[in-house]
Amino acid sequence: MKSFIFLIGLCSLIYVSSARLAGGWSDVENVNSPEIQKYARMATKNVTDLMHYPFHLKMMNITKAEKQVVSGMNYKMEVQIGPTECRRNGNYTDQEIEDCPLQKCDNPLVCTFVVWVQPWRTNPVQSTRSTCALGDTFC
Q: What's the pTM?
């Protein structure tokens, strides 16, 4: 009887420890969803605006995305970014930059973005954190 109670207790402990932590990060099922793509492009544009690089930067690939329920939703994305052939001193629309070809890039920036989405607010999408790792060389 004691071993049966011990076994039930052990199974309960394993079940509880395998459950997701409320408020913790969980994987986004489809990193290529239009919503995730939109947030990654927005965060990439913010990085481009902050950098003093002569070419516009563009998202190449989203390697990972997670979400977290907060007052709204946080999305954390790991994104590879490379330079386009469009110079920053040109007057390009967002769509023209999106259509601009990427330069050959073997060593893109790897950036982690956190975007906070609160659909009920006047400014519903905010980029709250951006960090980029440069490696040895950039492209």
A: 0.79
